[in-house]
Amino acid sequence: MSNGPTPDDLRAKVFEDSEAPGDWRVEKFDEDGGCEVTVFGGPEARERAIRYADREYGVFDEIQLEPYARP
Fold first, then answer.
1. Sign, CA torsion 57/7/60/17
2. Taking a C-beta distance cutoff of 8 angstroms, is the pair 45, 22 a contact?
3. Domain housing 37
4. Among 8, 13, 18, 57, which is disulfide-ready with 68 (CB 3.0 to 4.6 Å)?
5. What's the domain count of the chain?
6. In what order do the strands lie in the sheet with 35-40?
7. pLDDT tens sequence for the chain (71 residues)
């Protein structure tokens, strides 16, 4: 059993920013724990984020985060 990241963990994720509705994020983690983050805002932010993820990574997951409540 491996304690490292799974292939699914390393896929790029596309999702709406929970703190800035309307902004969309693309996040991609690597095997060393590094993370690339790109944020899209404005008109067609979701579509532009998806196009970017497809162009840069080829394989990605569009996910929906649970609502974030500040303490």
1. negative
2. yes
3. 12-62
4. 18
5. 1
6. 35-40, 24-29, 12-16, 60-62
7. 567 777 777 899 999 998 899 999 999 998 888 999 999 999 999 999 999 999 999 999 999 988 777 77
Place of tokens 């609502």: 67
22 domain-assigned: yes
- Mark residue 58 as left, alpha or beta (left: phi above 0; alpha: psi -120 to 50; beta: remaining): left
In a domain? residue 42: yes
Cβ-based neighbour number of residue 4 at 10 Å: 7
Question: What pTM was computed for the model?
Answer: 0.84
Establish if 5 belongs to a structural domain: no
> 69 lies in a domain?
no
Structure token pair of residue 60: 């990605």
